[in-house]
Amino acid sequence: MRFRKSRTDNGGVCAACREIPTALCATCGAHGPCYFAATDTPKCLPCSAKEREEAVCASCGNHRRVNNRTATGEPLCGNCGNKPKPCAGCGGIFCTSGRTAEGEPLCQTCWAKHPAAHRPCTQCGSVERLYRHGQCAACSRAADLRDVLSPPGGLMHPELEPVFQALLKPPPRTVLRWIHKIPARRAVLQALAMERGPVTHDVLDRFATAPTVEYLRAALVAAGSLPARGEQLARLERWLVKAIARVSAAEERRILRNYTNWQPLRRLRSLPAGQLVTHGRAETVRMEFRNAARLLE
User: What single-letter DSSP state applies at residue 117?
Assistant: First the structure.
């Protein structure tokens, strides 16, 4: 048993099972799930939330957006409308995310494990805890991936199909969190949607800091879309290029460039097959470079 968010001919439905038709929002112009989709003035969910009525909460007295109402119709804000209660599953004091068939409140963790939370997906038919609008997490992941990997107003480029297939391997909710909750990683996918040509290691090296793209690179390598390479050596090479560029004197930059190419990098690149550059070896080269730069100074 969950809170009803809308009503159908067969009764009330919760937020996860509710199916909202898509349309072009008359307020912001974005295409997505909209209320009043069959009318001339459809309104998307964010615009509807912004225009929700504001009033003085009957419980806390603050002027907030009305999220719930009491039995007598008095307005309640989001915090007061769902106050923490003892969970029937774990006994902790949490906000109610669902209820058992007997009406007992359950917290978010206990509700996710409860059989009453499982519903059939309207798209693939799998019975599990739905993610949104009647769809399971796997179906929502596929739709959101295609959306973020497509340029504005266009379709996903065929060169991004390996990226799409690689991101179908990890758990669906992990990928969905990556898309919607981590702006830096979402920005990488949106930037790839604007690129032309296949996704290579050189293309990924151009984006932001290493941790932002390492998950994507590892997923592509694991799926066979990218060849495996020595990441420690690649990071060291990028670090040396930036470190040499920071040296002001042109003659000293030339000396350092020749030194790194013919001494430490040549030593690492000539390692026996199957022997990778470790973090310790890369740090040793960085220390050697710093000492050489100090000597020139």
Answer: G
